[in-house]
Here is the input.
Amino acid sequence: MKIGDLAERTGVSRDTLRLYEKRGLIQSVRRSNGYRDFDPAMARLVGLIRQGQQLGFSLAEMQGVVEALSGRDLSAEDTAALFQQKIDEVDVKITQMTSLRGMLAEMMQQACPLRQ
Here is the structure.
């Protein structure tokens, strides 16, 4: 699959795919004409990487996830620790956002006492 086909299939730009490849997140085979040829299975991996980024994982963190999925370097314990770390970060953000919401509601009540 050419890079343009992979980009269209995944909704990711060609530049982003090149970055993922440069970082070792995805792989291609170079054709004799220099074009990249991606295995169709890369579409699923690109989807996983995008989803991870949307959930707040950095590309470096996604590298660990990709390696774990491919059986390289990262143990199951390391993968679980990576996910736990991200869960802990999300919990902190939830606590901060809940506190912020409370402060805003209090400020609104003070500014507009008739508003419930």
Summary: The beta strands are 29-30, 36-37. The mean pLDDT is 88. Residues 76-111 form the longest helix (36 residues).
